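Entry 14. Ran structure prediction on the chain below.
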Amino acid sequence: MTTTVTPELARRLWRAIEPIHGVAYYAPESIEATRGLGLIGYWMGYFAGRLAPVGAVDARTASALSFAFAPRRVERAIPEAWAIAAPDKVVQARLDAVSTTLKGAGAERKAIARLADLFELAVEGCAFEGRALAAGWADVPRPADPEARLWLATAVLREHRGDGHVIAVTYHGLSGLEAGVTHVATGEVSRELIQTTRAWTDEEWEQAVERLTTRGLIAEGGGLTDKGRNLRREIEDTTDRLASSQADTLGTEGVEEALTLAVSIGRRISERGLFLVPNPIGVPHP
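Output, structure tokens:
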């Protein structure tokens, strides 16, 4: 299909999607929903809530799907989470929680429903080869509730892009930890934020810096070299290109309409403290 949608427009779409999707990780309703199932602590709720559509995966598979995190953080949650709450129960609890959050965000339901329509159309344009997490969310039955529909569509689109990002990072020879180190080296996010949330030790971090310095990607002082900046640019450009199929079925006008609606809804979410900045992926307020 011929399209005028550009990779840059795909990146703008992702930045608009992220605050809507992010209520699952920041809003109190989502955190309470996983606790209500008996899941222990924030991180067990995070990994179970994110991975549940793929099924009761083991720790190795969960770590592979959670590419940016130290395996020890994942292993503390998975597979124990599945002995507490079955994946289908986790998915339903998440959908109920995000629906409640979005209803309380103050956006017009007409706008919510229209954006859900647009994002569901974008999902139809996605290919899922090599994108296990996105495929799992795409297989979740579509809810009737417009708020839950909207969030589910953002989950598919967000994980589709994320899976594509992992493809780009690994193709360019970086591990999950090294991707985090180079992201910090751009100055877009702090080491404290990435290292703390992803649970890498100081020793692991410094060893990664040493490897990347040897490769000529990290300069003295911790910033990127020209080679490092070029690599990060290639990774981000590849990620955008791999995500562009999301917008093919919308076309430029459809993407622009989706952006207008998503930014408006995202601002309401952000104003209510339901999407936090700074965050580990470096997305700003809408």
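DSSP finds 17 helices and no strands in the chain. Will compare against last week's run tomorrow.
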